[in-house]
Amino acid sequence: MSGFHKFFRDSKIGLPAYVAAINMRTGIAVITPIITVIGIELGLSTIELAWLAAIPVLCFAFISPVAGWFNQIGSIDRIISIAMWVLAAALLFRATGSVFALFFFTLLLGIATAVLNVTLPAWVKLHGGEHAGVITGTYVTLMGITSAVALAISAPLTAASSLSWQLAMLPWGVLALLGAIWWQLRIRENGLREIDQSSKISWRTLLRNRRAWQVTAFFGLQSMNAYAGGTWIPTILFDRGYALAAAGLTVAIISLLGSIAAAYVPQLATTRTEQRSILWLFTAITAVGYLGLLLDSGWRLTLWVLFALFGQSATFPLSLILVVLRSETAATAAALSTMMQSIGYLIAATGPLLVGAIFQWSGSWNAGLAFMLVIVALQGIAAAGAGRRGTL
Question: Which residue ranges run through the membrane (predicted)?
């Protein structure tokens, strides 16, 4: 089979995951370049803005166990469809402009995305078979692309209209609504497919599994840095002389390039019997980026952002494919995904909060960048166990 035909076949199998994935990070990414504008217009402090950034990640932590329970009692396809409708409503109504709407619908957005976070890896295990690596890499890349587009256009849209930051949020609500309609029509046409309940496993049973903890630690630490960096790097660039739109566009373009370049990484990981070396490689690239941001200045900051975000763009899909590689069945993948994301995102949620608090305490971003370097080092330690060959 030619490479083109194989790609087309894999794309057709993974299309439902791709439709969901393009909507999973836009609502979070759109806020990052304009978080300062939102704070000024609504009178929010740095800590309040840090909490706003942390809400989705906290939802990922606390809602994931419930999403895992959904996997055990109903069809994954139905659960994803419902989550898509909730996500669309949250994205649309968050743009009404009040402080209450901003926080409440960000909470709702976080809940819906948490459900999708847990169910998509299990969906890939159930439907993807030997194509799991390609499907995972593609859907994570699409998440990165749409996230980068949201980053790139949010500041220009904010500046272009009297609606300010509300206008920047509206397109993503419309896109999610179209995705929800597509999923509803797909279920009506194709029906539902269930996980084999005879092999179901509770994520709590994995709490006694050392390998499950190693995968969870790697995911949590890389996500902690990713969310801290994604929240504050545009602000760091702005404080160091970049224009607001330029800071957002810089991060957007680099995130886009990183996501595209990292698309092949999960497939590469599936061809290896162990993944430690590839996890260490991209962890080291991330560390080089944060070290450069800490020590350097001027135009070279763009280069160091490239290193940091490229490394993060690769380690995120790697952590997701670890769920597939360390699981023998779809039920085990669902349980591991639930544990990894429940605990991992609880770790990740502290990233934006701690870096924001460190800045407020020290008055400098360097202390926060040094803290993020420590987290990258711990991520490298976790990779030693998470990347070792074998299943749970």
Answer: 21-43, 49-69, 76-93, 99-120, 132-157, 163-183, 212-230, 242-265, 277-295, 301-323, 343-361, 367-386
